[in-house]
Amino acid sequence: MIQIQKLTKTFGDFTALHAVDLAIKKGEVVILNGVSGSGKSTLLSLIAALQKPTSGEILIDQTPIAKLPQHHASRFRLEHIGFTPQDFKLIPTLSIYENILLPLVPLGLSPSQIDSRIREVISLIPIGKDLTHTAKDLSGGEKQRVAIARSLAADPDLLLFDEPTANLDSGNAERFLTLLEKLHCMGKTILIATHDPIFDHLPLPTRTIYMRQGRIVDAL
Ligand SMILES: Nc1ncnc2c1ncn2[C@@H]1O[C@H](COP(=O)(O)OP(=O)(O)O)[C@@H](O)[C@H]1O
Ligand SMILES: [Mg+2]
Question: Average pLDDT, stretch 101-126?
Answer without folding.
Answer: 94
